[in-house]
Specification:
The complex is a heterooctamer, with two copies of chain A, two copies of chain B, two copies of chain C and two copies of chain D. Chain B is α/β, with parallel strands linked by helices. Chain B is built from ten helices and ten strands. In chain C, strand 11, helix 10 and strand 12 form a beta-alpha-beta unit. The chains are: A alpha/beta, B alpha/beta, C alpha/beta, D alpha+beta. Strand 3 of chain B pairs parallel with strand 9 of chain F, so a sheet runs across the interface.
């Protein structure tokens, strides 16, 4: 594993990008790794683009601000346009298939288009598309133990949504499976 | 885009006013701010006063109003739109000046400026968007939030004895001799929008008379802050806002 | 500055703003008064959620002007009290802060700085350094200013701030920024119940027959008396300067070039050091933790050893003046910064260092 | 009944459905498609529009243009009344 | 000084309250501030609450109130006494807290704090000295200055259309649900002083109930600012102030 | 700084505050907004008396917060506009001033400083130097700060302030004090009608069909844009620093000890020079007239010649930092001051000089 | 008629004459002397005081103490009513 | 004549000390002398002590603040207590006779007690006592031409009081005469 993994989660507000990042962050903390989670915040909170940067590291994290990424989870077109160029060579970029018009073009990174919404609809919960992607990502980049991701999920999900834990777990699993099937985008 | 009169015998009976720019509005889907912007610009169009109108935007969701209204505008510090508008109107007494403010802006931090602007009878129009919440900063309690209302800063519901009562600032202002025309309107139905527009038009016309301040409260919505769909908010306005903030003219000029 | 070993809770992942608020509750806060403003509204929101089910008082004020004056009243009544805001809101508090400093009341003001001037942006900035350390209000006064660089420090400095404020009867400020407020990191919070309340003999709690009445005021209409107050204040500041300076040294032992940076900028600089050392450039960092009192002496010391200083700030160059005053001409002092909500990258700081090195060796030739 | 028509700017519409709720004819519906901003947008779904402009009056995005069968000699305005 | 009961069969029926200090008052001869100070301290004496009472002085002529009242006091920034009193009362809810403010302080710069303090129904007493002028700074126009009144900043008389109308803030405050008891009193005659004292006493007693803010406006005088002798000012109060600021209770608690 | 030879009226005896106000009317002021506060209420009072019978607009605002925001509105509408206050009132204006600087509006703010901090006294002071020159509000901005030392300058600097403010689209401040405001001296006022109005293309006067709409704002929500604004501001400040520095030299030709003082303090120092020279001590004075831009270069020059610098201020030592930054370690820089409304006497300044001389010669031995 | 008496603190009195105007008995008058603060002060000029305390109620300086013929068994207070 | 004369006028508010100073200042300006007038201002405006310092000089005045005086006009006891010690040796101190309890004691200055109120009452205008003292002072220290003092008087007196110019002139004359009669206090 790398010394640190610098991950960007980006999409529209409401697609769950911030909580994806938080789950990773919590899980990393459970594993006693160093971690930082930095949202972009703004009046754009209310729609528009939302993103967060997560750093998972085995060493103390100095700058929580990074401009180049090892991993990217992309849920809309503006985010792809913004972050594709910022990927480090050899990095991984995962996007939701139906959300993009123009696909990534870089060849020095791994790119995967995940049909997360489609799969989520199959689970009767469109909202868990993000968890499918997360499952996919963690399968491709096994930064964290699965059980810790589940623990983190419980932390991040508000109490009142705890009845949705099973379907979220299911979604993670779906993503993980998709990752097994998919070798390159 | 379209021709005024179409080949097929249809004529345009409603289109976007030309004084509204083409910049996409940054507001959340279904937000009343946008409607009020449009109504204001319809009136400016209709009265042909684009070149004589100066607007003052607040700090609040409508901070970017100047991106949408194709008129000269100033962006005021939080709560100070009344003072800024006063500054403009005093040095340009022949222009139409209006301020546009949210409930946090006008009725919390800007209370003093609001009251004294109206008390001086500044010859301006003040448009007051009451959505019972601080929209821009993420849904905190506003002075106009209703009793028991849950917001980001009243998570257990507004406890009026600790946090203050819903402030009916419009009723207070109506009592000031400087207030010429004070009315409460809404945007929850097409008819409400029609009435709002009438009030705006009247206010601009009164402004020529130099007889005092016109003040329009618009009972509006905040789908994001209220955590409701836009359609739900309109119902909620009727059921919850109107009992506290009833519509209608509160003070009309006597001539 | 005193170092206390508190008992701490299990690590949690928290936003800086929330960690600060939670820490304040654990520091047995009596009251919080504040007004929403991005990027720190979570502080008020956290208190509104937690205080009613735990202890203390919280009130959303009608403005920052009201907030700071409520703080004045509560502090004068002997309470442990704080407010928080971000740049424009803190500007509105300047009169009140000057009053509090003059009346010598302990309290905590948190500024989660955003890009200015004016309405500006809501992104992180350090543009309020001067306001914080030189006194943005009128007259000669100071705040004790602590600059956290991590979420852990956002939490811990609440305790330090109250301790110092109460010891010196002096308002304290935590000067943070939007990034530190919004980001989440691991934090081990100090556990509740370890931070006792003091009994202030000067507080207005109602005059019993047994003592003279207490008066909280900053009005001394005879200039001779007001000057007396000023001498008292200056004596206090001298004492604070002597006893309470705090800073961190990072890889300075063998460094021949010294970066000076506080808060978020200091973390950027740590990364720069890493990058620089990979290239064989011996960079070190002095991180002022207390911005007032400023760590003048340690910088002076390094002025003998270092080739030059580079001050890295998220502003147009403010702390660089205090560094230059400390260095006092012995070595060149440079500034590198970004403004209005932009954050310098470790890489661009390194480029700056390299440019200066190049320029200097050119000058020598 | 008067014949009318509306056109809706599908790129600025945010799918708030206020027009749909305001239409007395129930002429409007949301699209299946999403636009670039990620919203499903309103469309004229039935051919029974009367050109009453209700939908346009409540549309926050000023996305709706309304047409109506030409009457005798009413002059064209841009105004909602 | 004197014995309570004299040899000659006379008994003391009135003397300076013991909670008033011996410091000579700095007010101009005949100034109403002093009378109100005395009345406040008479009530504190009478209720025996010296050890439970905390006062807040404003910026204005009464800035030095703490020199005269032998109780714990704080001096607030100009206009902010409401906020300061709020701060005190919130952390010491069992104490009696009152603020004391002039018309410039309370109704100009402090308008927002005043309105929101009352709107929250802070359980305090606010004493509001309306002398229709800025006494301390040398007789400038106050929000309550009367129409046509000549002051240092309205040398041609207050032109209400330019400078604002006399602000009846007390009437506004009475409408806020947070206001428990709102009354307008005066000091122009012995009887007025008697009534004022009753109002003060009632207010302190209401404060125990935690039911809202008590607000007492005192129509007072400013011989220096008005450029009249003290005796003239009392007549002027009756003839000119009362028509605009009529005496009496404006809101009384309903129990 | 440009020097213009205006036609002037016969000498009159006037209070500083009134001379300033009269001068503003002659400078064709469009509007004044202000709130009473000692020791400058005469400014508002003078306007309320004169403007109605002459020209312009005047309004007593409900507060200083309102005043500065009225100034913002009127300045944005292209008017020549000013406000005035004293220390606590100016603190309340800090948010508004930051907005004005950020929106790049020309206007004049007068601070007739009194003793602080807090409510303080109403006696003269220079305790607001930092606030004036470092920016008491949030973010990186500056005011052009002029420091008059006579009633004549109280009047004249109004013209200079407006000229600079309008040329640079930058708020200007006259930093005076209670003594200069209250005292009467002879003054030859600039006659009316010599100071033309500019036509500001950016002003919000109503958008005609022929131009794009004008927007006055300080909000640039993308930090990249806000940084751009900051770069523009900094470029402007650099230009101001290059072109507009103003200072006065008093008996510096043969001086080996340099006093540095502004405003009233500078006049005290002139007397000190007189007394010193009687004793054979070669004192000279650098009087900064513009406090921002600060006359750094001239001080630098003297750092080569002078034995030491003594900065005399009516505060706890503020300008002394800027002097030390200019001297940059070349020579010792000392501070002598009084605070909270007290004024140093020429004699005590001389004693200080003599003490330093004694100390220095002792150190040599 | 009830017999009363007042004593007036001549050093704190500022000669505002409010007591004089308020006395229904016209018992009070200003002194010829001035005190250290430069004011002529109020004095009891006639012997017809009834101890009604009107003067004391309006006195801004709290300079007046009022005495009255002892009645049956009223307890002494410091209060004006 | 001295290079400069530094004069303090001090008394209660309302005794006219500020205008005495202003008259001197105006007259000096008319004579093209350098001059400064500095009031002590404060909440004491309204009663309490009031004073002003006037410097009349043939050279440019640097410090307008002086702590030692050549001349003093004293109208109440607190002012005497404060300013007698601040007199330069050889200076002149003039006080109103009825206003003091304790008289000045310094022997290195000229002291005069002027019965100004008594004389003013004789003129039926108690308010002109200050002008009597001023006349007295100017007779003892002829800093300024009489006609310029009269011109200055017109400047200082508000328009609405211009009908009182004659009685003020008379008062100046009375003071001048008293000075002739009086050699030492
Ligand atoms: C001095 C200051 N305080 C606080 C803020 C933060 N702020 C921005 S908008 C806002 C409130 C917005 O609420 P409202 O006025 O009701 O407008 P809305 O967004 O609801 O339309 C606040 C508190 C600020 N920008 N400046
Ligand atoms: C921020 C601020 N602005 C202005 C002042 C100056 N000031 C002191 S008292 C006062 C007004 C006093 O008037 P009022 O409140 O009516 O009290 P009064 O003296 O009449 O009793 C003003 C404007 C100040 N001290 N602080
Ligand atoms: S937050 Fe509320 S007020 Fe603001 S744009 Fe969204 S819906 Fe409208
Ligand atoms: S114009 Fe009227 S009928 Fe036609 S779509 Fe709109 S609301 Fe419906
Ligand atoms: S009201 Fe406007 S924005 Fe909303 S759905 Fe209809 S067309 Fe779209
Ligand atoms: S100025 Fe007026 S209010 Fe102030 S003390 Fe004198 S009379 Fe009273
Ligand atoms: S007590 Fe009554 S009668 Fe006696 S002096 Fe006073 S007012 Fe007059
Ligand atoms: S009312 Fe009091 S102060 Fe006034 S004259 Fe009478 S005793 Fe003296
Ligand atoms: Mg709102
Ligand atoms: Mg008043």
């Amino acid at each position: 594993m790398l010394k640190a993994n610098e991950i960007i989660f980006a999409g529209f507000g409401g697609q769950g990008v911030l909580s994806m990042g938080q789950i990773i962050a919590y899980a990393a903390m459970i594993e006693k790794k160093e971690v930082s989670w930095m949202p972009s915040y703004g009046p754009e909170m209310r729609g528009g683009t939302a993103n967060c940067t997560v750093i998972v590291s085995n060493e103390k994290i100095n700058s929580p601000i990074v401009s180049r990424f090892d991993s990217a989870i992309i849920l809309n077109q503006p985010s792809l346009d913004k972050f594709e160029p910022a990927m480090k060579p050899g990095g991984i970029l995962i996007y939701e298939k139906t959300c993009l018009v123009n696909l990534p073009t870089r060849t020095d990174i791994e790119c995967y288009g995940v049909p997360a919404i489609e799969e989520a609809v199959k689970l009767n919960k469109k909202q868990v598309a993000n968890m499918i992607i997360l499952g996919f990502f963690l399968a491709k980049r096994p930064l964290l133990e699965h059980e810790n991701v589940l623990k983190a999920l419980k932390k991040v999900l508000p109490e009142r949504h705890h009845h949705m834990i099973p379907v979220n777990e299911q979604a993670l699993e779906v993503g993980r499976k998709l990752a097994g099937e998919m070798v390159l985008a | 885009m379209e021709n005024e009169i179409q080949d097929n015998g249809l004529e345009i009976v409603y289109k976007k006013p030309s004084t509204l720019t083409d910049t996409p509005l940054h507001y959340c889907p279904g937000c009343g701010h946008s409607v009020v912007h449009r109504v204001l610009m319809e009136v400016v169009d209709e009265l042909g006063i684009q070149d004589k109108t100066i607007g003052v935007a607040p700090v609040g969701c409508s901070v970017f109003a100047y991106n949408y209204m194709n008129i000269d505008m100033q962006e005021a510090a939080h709560g100070r739109a009344g003072a800024v508008a006063t500054g403009i109107k005093r040095v340009l007494p022949d222009k139409y000046v209006f301020s546009y403010q949210g409930d946090g802006d006008l009725a919390a931090i800007g209370t003093a400026e609001t009251i004294h602007t109206v008390n001086r009878g500044e010859n301006i129009l003040m448009v007051f968007i009451n959505n019972a919440i601080y929209g821009m900063t993420g849904g905190q309690m506003a002075p106009t939030s209703l009793e028991g209302m849950k917001t980001a800063t009243s998570p257990y519901g507004r406890d009026v004895k600790l946090m203050g009562y819903p402030l009916k600032i419009t009723e207070l202002l109506a009592q000031l001799p400087g207030a010429l025309y004070v009315t409460r309107q809404s945007v929850h139905t097409p008819n409400a929008v029609r009435k709002l527009k009438k009030a705006v038009k009247a206010s601009f016309e009164y402004q020529k008379l130099n007889e005092g301040t016109c003040f329009i409260e618009v009972v509006s919505n905040c789908p994001s802050g209220w955590k409701q769909t836009p359609v739900q908010t309109m119902k909620w306005i009727e059921e919850n806002m109107f009992p506290k903030y009833p519509l209608g003219d509160i003070k009309v000029p006597k001539f | 500055m005193e170092k206390i070993n508190y008992k701490r809770s299990e690590p949690r992942l928290m936003k800086g703003n929330e960690a600060l608020a939670e820490s304040a509750i654990r520091a047995d806060l009596d009251a919080y008064f504040g007004y929403p403003i991005t990027p720190q509204s979570e502080i008020l929101e956290y208190f509104e959620e937690q205080i009613p089910i735990r202890h203390g008082k919280v009130l959303q004020a009608e403005s920052e002007v009201a907030s700071i004056n409520m703080v004045y009243g509560a502090a004068g009544a002997g309470a442990r009290v704080m407010t928080s805001s971000s740049s424009p809101g803190v500007s509105l508090m300047q009169e009140g802060i000057s009053y509090i400093a003059s009346a010598q009341l302990p309290c905590l003001v948190v500024n989660v700085v955003r890009g200015g001037p004016g309405l500006g942006t809501i992104q992180p900035s350090q543009g309020d350094y001067f306001q914080a350390v030189k006194g943005g209000g009128h007259g000669d006064y100071h705040l004790i200013v602590l600059a956290p660089a991590t979420v852990q420090e956002m939490a811990d400095f609440v305790f330090d701030a109250f301790r110092l404020a109460e010891e010196y009867r002096c308002p304290a400020m935590i000067l943070s920024d939007g990034a530190l407020g919004q980001m989440m990191e691991k934090v081990e919070l100090i556990e509740e119940g370890q931070f006792p309340k003091r009994n202030f003999s000067w507080a207005t709690t109602g005059k019993p027959a047994t003592r003279e009445r207490n008066i909280i005021t900053s009005l001394f209409i005879e200039p001779e008396k007001m000057e007396g107050i000023n001498y008292d204040l200056q004596a206090k500041y001298a004492k604070i300067q002597k006893n309470e300076v705090r800073y961190e040294l990072v890889e300075t032992d063998d460094a021949d070039i010294i970066l000076v940076a506080f808060g978020l900028s200091a973390r950027i600089c740590q990364k720069t050091i890493e990058l620089a050392r990979e290239k064989g450039i011996k960079l070190g960092l002095i991180r002022p933790i207390t911005l007032y009192p400023f760590p003048t002496n340690i910088i002076k010391e390094f002025a003998d050893k270092a080739k030059f200083f580079l001050v890295v700030e998220m502003n147009a160059g403010q702390m660089v003046e205090d560094v230059a005053l400390a260095v006092n001409g012995k070595k060149p002092v440079y500034y590198k910064g970004r403004m209005g909500g932009m954050i310098p990258t470790p890489e661009e700081v390194l480029v700056e260092v390299e440019n200066i090195i190049a320029k200097q060796s050119e000058e020598k030739r | 009944m008067i014949r009318g028509k509306v056109t809706i700017n599908s790129s600025t519409c945010k799918g708030c459905e206020l027009c749909i709720a305001a239409c007395p004819q129930e002429s409007l519906a949301l699209s299946k498609q999403i636009n670039l901003a990620g919203y499903r947008y309103a469309e004229l779904a039935k051919d029974n529009c009367t050109g009453c402009i209700n939908c346009a009056l409540v549309c926050p995005e000023a996305a709706i243009t309304v047409y109506r069968q030409q009457k005798a000699k009413k002059s064209v305005t841009t105004i909602g009344e």
